[in-house]
Write a structure and sequence with these properties.
heterodimer, A: alpha/beta, Glutaredoxin, Rossmann fold, Ubiquitin-like (UB roll), 5 domains, five-stranded mixed beta sheet, 25 helices, 18 strands, 39% helix, 15% strand, globular, B: alpha/beta, FAD/NAD(P)-binding domain, five-stranded parallel beta sheet, 15 helices
Chain lengths: 610, 585
């Protein structure tokens, strides 16, 4: 074999983020440019370029973190690379202009941990993010990976493992928050039918719009999930596991498959794990993208190759799950938490968080917020801290209006509740839910009726159609919301909408239907005025519902400031604007289709919307 | 045992009972749509919801799948339940406004018109999934499933095309509560059992109403279980546990001293005479079909009705269909005249119709038969002597419009007549049964020219055959009516008894025997023996004669090339010696 002279130690490690967001921002081109430039400067034996999983600060991608030193570079382009390499890596002068500068501040922050976005985060599930190459098992092992597995398999009995998880207070991170240890114990005590096997499933069917926690974990640290699953398998006595993962996550799928192969090669998976005589293997099941398959019984049906639709519970999967056998099903993030708990102990874990909710939770912060990205925060942190300190507030100096948590089935929480400490109970109390951790921030330009309509149209479209309330009810609710946003709603409609929402919540078969009315219920609870304005005054305060908008041109401004520039007339597709150049323009309301183009193109603010 | 309260009633039920079952026991009605007692609960319609209070928690649960628990307090019609149930039913009514069960429940709940959008006022499917579950759980064919999701959800076979997995059992239609699934053939007719094309039948039935023993059997060709291995619903519902699908048909060997053959007849297939239009005209029916029609337990409850449900105004009965006809059977079937007269009498009794009876000769040979014929003559039945040449529906005059016209030569008047009627009954003759030849072969008995079994002697041994111990009774020997059959059966029985009573059997003295030393095993004799009395012994490589079967005909003796087969008492040597003796004198 050819002896390669790769040095064992490097002076610098350049951690290039290769999460999906950064990859779509061409981080691989950055990596190539870096390698090319390093070679040119003769640094290839001193500086190593590493591709890592998602760093979390997706807003600022592509990202580069220089280790040691934790110097954080952001929004890189290929053009920046020669200068960066020469200045920083050759001459040792960090480049300030490529560092992160918070909005409305002048001084850049060089070190990652000093940035607000990272400062308040506590990393458990995302402990290895940005630090390891997810495609190398050695990297994971170097960061104490699989140590928990060794401990669990060689020093602990299954009962001890379950006891440890129970003591830690870990609850399901998929949304419902069922105590993980308790679930494991149920499966451990359940006996398989007809001498069959117990199964263990990782739910990676992340379907919430704007949520990407699971994808990120699987992309950045697939081994943490595998390790958690093997420990879980030992605890419940399963021999076969499945990871159900959306086919829309090609990168996560690729890295997970690779990680499984590596783990098998290292004897950490498969037959006789670590020589302890314990057998456990994991298969990957790919989902076709139906949202309802995130519901556990539908997911199991999908793995079995049947129609992906939920069935009534009980029996719970812990009693009769995959192929009718006791099955333990947990979310990606839950599994990723397990090795840390075994390693550092339940006591340490249970110190983080609130009385009822322990540990941390990963949220994907999206919407009208400065620092879009993935954050892991301790339970009990307030929404204000997440949105304004970590998230950096609302862009454009706009005012915060509401935050939607828990995906399409969650609720909208208004600004009065910003100081709410987040845990499973408090969010449910506020009419929303933890969900899988989506957090959509909305500013003053958002119409809450429209938001409710948007989320409901998603759940209505994704309803499997099995039970009456979800299939017919969500459609009936959507029809009412359509009417309201068109200005055709009545106050009886509002009453019917509320009745429907309550009834669907009470009588739907599965979690999808039971939570589908949440966006409507919470917006009705906190923003009832907006509904009434739509119904009584036929107006949309945020001017989002186009059918309710009336566009007019202030002739005075048009003439005096804009000098009749004629841009609006030229852009009007329905020829609803009349007026000569240098003359004031006017909109013929009968012809106006309310597309809003004139409003957007008028630089002088002459077009008014009401 | 578990204690719970439903609507204030205190109950004690077994563990594992659902709330719905418990309520049923207490005579409390909970409306259901997607539930069926023979299928697993599906809990999709959400109509059977009830309010359950357990351990301080009050929630709405579906009663069809929720098991009872100790101390549960159930309200089946609380305000909260009714509000939610009403909305769910209202939504279902908007989806399927033509579904009767939904309409009924909606009426009970006081819903007049749904407040939601109605897409199709004719829609009947409520997506309860009973058909899909029946096909999966009961039939095991999995030929239909739900496709699409949400509002687009519907029941369909794969890719919307007729599925090969479908075994045509119509279980889906049987389970469908709203009639959204119907089963029709290509011509839009309801698919029913083939038996006489007169009514539907199930896989479990009594073969005929006069069956002995009068017990139901499972028709393996129609039973779902024998096609897919599933179903067995009959086992679930049979409280006596009398059904066993594992029972196999078996062949039983019984040693007997004598055998009576009574293998019966089959009616002549009237389709063989195209001119009579049987099978083309729905109102041309055979005698057996008419017999079923007038039967009080028949499809019309004994009323004589046309295919369109109306009473006929004129009926023609045609004698000798397939009998006394050179083209079909030359013999007289003997029973047709008398049953035709009976039909004419029944029609006279039950309808106002004119009756025409087309005969060649009236053969009323039995006791009291002639008197019955005379009664019919007095009753006003019109007897026309002559063979019907054709039945047509092409009218020549306005009176013939919409009628069946019988063309016949009235030999008494000497003209060809056209007689319009509404219904024609064909008095089909009797033919040997389908497996007649097979039976003849097995028992080695001969058939006469008319293909019925041949008796040993028409006058002296009318119930015996050429094989000793095998007797004939009934129409397998020749067409005959019930009194004659009973008489012949009695005779055959006493012959058989006489033989059995004797206990022994006298062999013919003159039979063939085969000399083991000379036999070359060529088996020529085996194929020639008309009585199947010679078998080939594979071990010894020789042929052997069964003395009980051999009639001493001598065929084998004359055919044996090696001279091994010899007739006892008439051996070649004996005959030669006798001839020589003649010459000595």
């Amino acid at each position: 074999m050819e002896e390669k002279t790769t040095p064992t130690r490097y002076r610098l490690h350049l951690m290039v983020c290769a999460g999906t967001a950064c990859v779509s921002n061409r981080s691989f081109e950055i990596k190539e440019a870096l390698e090319k430039e390093l070679k040119k400067q003769g640094l290839e034996n001193e500086v190593l370029v590493v591709t890592t999983g998602c760093n979390g600060f997706c807003e600022r991608g592509p990202l580069l973190v220089v280790q040691p030193g934790n110097i954080f570079y952001q929004q890189l382009t290929v053009k920046d690379i020669p200068y960066l390499v020469e200045e920083h890596f050759l001459k040792g002068r960090p480049v300030q202009k490529l560092m992160y500068t918070p909005p409305e501040e002048k001084k850049p922050i060089p070190v990652l941990n000093d940035i607000d976005f990272f400062k308040k985060q506590v990393l458990i599930a995302l402990r290895n993010r940005g630090l390891i190459d997810p495609e190398k098992i050695e990297d994971y092992i170097a960061r104490d990976g699989y140590r928990a597995l060794v401990k669990a398999l060689t020093q602990m009995t299954p009962e001890e493992i379950i006891e440890e998880i129970k003591k830690s207070g870990l609850r399901g991170r998929g949304g419902a928050g069922f105590p993980t240890g308790l679930k494991w114990e149920f499966v451990r005590l359940a006996s398989p039918a007809n001498g069959g096997l117990k199964y263990l499933v990782c739910n990676g069917d992340e379907g919430d719009p704007g949520a990407f926690m699971d994808r990120s974990i699987l992309e950045a640290d697939p081994h943490s999930v595998i390790e958690g699953m093997v420990i879980g398998a030992k605890a419940i006595g399963a021999q076969q596991g499945y990871v159900y993962i959306r086919n829309e996550y090609p990168l996560a799928l690729k890295r997970l498959t690779l990680a499984l192969e590596q783990a098998r090669e290292y004897g950490l998976l498969g037959k006789d794990i670590l020589g302890t005589g314990f057998d456990f293997d994991i298969k990957v099941a790919r989902g076709a993208g139906a949202f309802v398959c995130g519901e556990e019984t539908a997911l199991l049906a999908s793995i079995e190759g049947r129609l992906g639709e939920p069935r009534p519970r009980p029996p719970y999967p812990a009693q009769r799950g995959l192929y009718g056998q006791p099955t333990c099903i947990n979310n990606v993030e839950t599994w990723a938490n397990v090795p840390v708990i075994i390693n550092r102990g339940a006591e340490w874990f249970s110190k983080i968080g609130t009385k009822t909710s322990k540990g941390t939770k990963v949220f994907s912060l999206v919407g009208k917020i400065n620092n879009t990205g993935l954050v892991e925060v301790p339970m009990g942190i307030t929404l204000r801290e997440i949105i304004f300190e970590i998230g950096g507030g609302i862009p454009g100096g706009k005012e915060f209006k509401a935050v939607q948590t828990g995906g399409p089935s969650g609720g909208c929480i208004p600004k009065e509740k910003l100081d709410l400490p987040i845990d499973y109970e408090s969010l449910t109390e506020a009419g929303s839910m933890m969900g899988s951790g989506g957090m959509v921030v909305m500013d003053e330009d958002t119409c809450m009726v429209d938001v409710a309509k948007y989320f409901l149209s998603f759940t209505q479209d994704e309803s499997c159609g099995k039970c009456t309330p979800c299939r017919e009810g969500t459609k009936a609710m959507l029809d009412i919301l359509e009417r309201i946003t068109k200005g055709e709603g009545t106050e009886e409609d509002l009453q019917l909408l509320e009745d429907l929402a309550v009834s669907i919540k009470e009588t739907a078969l599965c979690g999808l239907g039971k939570t589908a009315p949440n966006p409507v219920l919470t917006t009705l609870r906190y923003f009832r005025d907006e509904y009434l304005t739509h119904i009584r005054d036929k107006k949309c305060p945020a001017h989002v519902c186009r059918d309710l908008n009336v566009y007019t041109i202030d002739e005075k401004i048009c003439l005096e400031v804009g000098h009749g520039c004629d841009v609006c007339r030229r852009n009007c597709a329905s020829e609803a604007i009349i007026g000569e150049k240098n003359q004031p323009h006017r909109i013929i309301q009968e012809k106006c289709i309310k597309c809003g183009v004139c409003y957007d193109v008028c630089k002088f603010g002459a077009v008014k919307v009401d | 045992m578990i204690h719970l309260t439903i609507d204030g009633k205190k109950l004690e039920v077994e563990e594992g009972t659902t709330i719905l079952q418990a309520a049923e026991k207490a005579d409390i009605h909970i409306p259901t749509l997607c539930f069926h007692p023979l299928l697993e609960p599906y809990a999709s319609c959400r109509v059977c919801i009830v309010e359950v209070e357990h351990q301080g928690k009050k929630e709405l649960l579906t009663s069809c799948n929720t098991l009872v628990r100790e101390g549960m307090v159930v309200e089946t019609a609380s305000e909260r339940v009714l509000r939610a149930r009403k909305l769910n039913v209202e939504m279902l009514l908007a989806r399927a406004p033509a579904a009767e069960p939904v309409k009924k429940i909606a009426q009970e709940l006081g819903i007049e018109k749904p407040r939601f959008e109605i897409k199709d006022p004719q829609e009947k499917c409520i997506l309860c999934g009973l058909c899909v579950r029946a096909c999966e759980e009961v039939v095991g064919a999995n030929a239909i499933s739900f496709i699409n999701r949400g509002q687009e959800r519907e029941v369909a076979p794969p890719f919307g095309e007729p599925s090969e997995a479908c075994i045509g059992c119509t279980a889906c239609a049987f389970f469908c509560p709203t009639g959204a699934i119907t089963y029709e053939d290509l011509y839009g007719r309801q698919v029913i059992h083939e038996e006489l094309n007169l009514g539907p039948a199930t896989a479990i039935r009594v073969p005929i109403r006069q069956a002995v023993p009068m017990v139901p059997f499972i028709d393996e060709d129609a039973c779902i279980h024998f096609k897919t291995g599933n179903c067995q619903l009959c086992v679930k519902v049979c409280e006596k546990e009398a059904i066993n699908h594992d029972m196999k048909e078996e062949e039983i060997e019984i040693e007997v001293g004598s055998i009576i053959l009574a293998s019966g007849f089959k009616p002549f297939d009237a389709r063989r005479i195209p001119a009579y239009g049987y099978g083309r005209f729905p109102n041309v029916i055979t005698a057996l079909e008419f017999e079923r029609l007038v039967n009080a337990s028949g499809p019309t409850g004994g009323k004589i009705l046309l295919a369109n449900g109306q009473e006929p105004k004129a009926v023609g009965i045609i004698h000798c269909v397939g009998s006394r006809d050179e083209n079909y059977n030359e013999y007289c079937s003997r029973v047709c005249c008398m049953y035709s007269l009976k039909f004419a009498h029944l029609i006279r009794e039950k309808t106002e119709a004119d009756i025409y009876d087309f005969y060649i000769d009236m053969r009323c040979f039995g006791k009291g038969y002639e008197e019955f014929y005379h009664r019919l003559l007095h009753e006003g039945t019109k007897f026309i002597r002559g063979r019907v040449s054709e039945i047509t529906d092409i009218p020549l005059t306005p009176e013939e419009e919409g009628k069946l016209i019988i063309r016949v030569e009235d030999t008494l008047v000497g003209t060809v007549r056209r007689i319009p009627v509404d219904m024609v009954i064909l008095a089909t003759g009797l033919e040997p049964s389908l497996d007649h030849n097979e039976i003849a072969h097995i028992f080695n008995i001969s058939c006469s020219q008319d293909t019925f079994f041949l008796e040993r002697h028409p006058k002296l041994a009318p119930v015996s055959t050429f094989s000793d111990g095998i007797f004939l009774a009934g129409t397998c020997q020749s067409p005959k009516d019930i009194p004659d059959t009973v008489a012949q059966a009695g005779a055959a029985a006493s012959e058989a008894l006489a033989l059995a009573d004797k206990g022994t059997f006298e062999l013919e003295p003159i039979t063939a025997e085969i000399d083991e030393k000379l036999c070359a095993g060529c088996q020529i004799c085996v194929s020639l023996c008309p009585f199947n009395a010679i078998t080939y012994n594979k071990e010894k490589h020789i042929s052997e004669v069964n003395d009980a079967l051999c009639k001493g005909c001598g065929t084998c003796v004359s055919a044996c090339p090696s001279g091994a087969a010899q007739q006892k008492h008439f051996r070649d040597l004996q005959i030669m010696a006798e001839i020589e003796g003649l010459f000595i004198d």
